[in-house]
């Protein structure tokens, strides 16, 4: 395993999704600046940041799973904000589909981490 959470496939994909959302939401109406824009950016960023927390908690399986679960929760919340974005016609169908499918893939990776924590735990210091 790499020496940093930045090397994790999940993190790379989640970071890419977050940056895509950041660029896309620049075109949202100004009245959404403190509403939908803030919410979708926050949840997508939190999915990434929770993985960095989980990586540092690899010594303790329960803590690791808890932090990965937090990331999964934030990823799911991002999907809800994507639903609102398409319903409000702030994004087109192609963008929605691309973002949603990316989020689904990230969710599968997170679920793999939750179901197989032993593959990610810090084996050197495992208690």
Strand content: under 5%
Count of distinct structural domains:
1
What Rg is obtained from the alpha carbons, in whole angstroms? 16 Å
Mean pLDDT: 92
CATH architecture descriptor name: Up-down Bundle
Task: Explain what you see.
The protein is mainly alpha-helical and 127 residues long. It has one domain: 23S rRNA-intervening sequence (de novo design (two linked rop proteins)), CATH 1.20.1440.60. It contains four helices and no strands. Helix 1 runs antiparallel to helix 4 and helix 2 packs antiparallel against helix 3 (61-87). The two termini are 19 Å apart. The mean pLDDT is 92.
Keywords:
elongated, 127 residues, de novo design (two linked rop proteins)
What is the compact description of this entry?
By secondary structure, this protein is mainly alpha-helical. Helices cover about 70% and strands about 0% of the residues. The protein has one domain (about 5-120): Up-down Bundle (de novo design (two linked rop proteins)).
Topology, element by element:
Elements: H1 9-25, H2 36-56, H3 61-87, H4 93-115
Helix pairs in contact: 1-2, 1-4, 2-3, 3-4
